[in-house]
Amino acid sequence: MTLYYIITFLFLGVFIFFGDSWIPNKQVNDTLHELAIGAFGALLGMAINTIINLRSKLWVCFLAATIYRNQHIRVSAAYIFKINIDGKCLLVKGRNIDQLQPVGGVYKRLPDSSRLFQDLEILDDKCIPICDTTRQDLRIRVKGKYLHKFLQWFDSNQDREISHWREFCEELIRTHILDSNVFPLINYKFLHRNPLYIHYSAFYECPEILIHEVYELLPTESQVTSLRHLLQTEQLGSKFRWVTEDAIKRLGYLPDNTKPFAIAEHTISLFDKEFKIK
Description:
Strand content: 15-25%
Radius of gyration: 24 Å
Distance between the termini: 38 Å
Shape: globular
Helix content: 25-40%
Number of helices: 7
Largest sheet: 7 strands, mixed
Number of strands: 11
């Protein structure tokens, strides 16, 4: 499809600048010339818009293919939920780190992706023990020269998890924070994906890319009632906490500079679509 657009774009450009003598009938020639200019402009606009939208991805893939060509880049691809009631967001305690974070977690790949992962020499995350819970998580290490192919595969949605119910269920339903009778199903909408960039992770001691997709829960009336009840009955020491946007952006610090709880840094991306880990 891309090749088709390129060929059409080049043909229109040649016709506009050199096609005056191609068609003897001046009226027909002028009409086609005007149509060609319109089509050329539309394709040029599409090309510019595509470049603007993909500029970060193109830059990251360029860096990966050059500077990090034979280095392993750690990639973690996850989704998180914005659950907002009466100006507060529902956060849950992390499983491995004592901090609050949004409901959600890493995507998983499906078994049919194994051949591709072998071809791209993709390795599991060396710092996360592999068990039944973490097996096939999209926390992986990929050489820079293969990064663009991995991202193409991820964006294709092929042979990977595309539903976002699993982590919602594991963190809120199975923990009995929410009632399964009230939340047998959920509706939600896509908000944004954080910018694609490479940063150095001191913890993992390697270049890293974090992909966070943010979804907003769209609760039914009965689910709103349940969430509001959860907000009003919150107790200290619970597995969850309702936190204001200001407290999230301060990562748990209150106006008096006290910090009663820690908040994971990526939580800020619930409100800031341009957020990057520093």
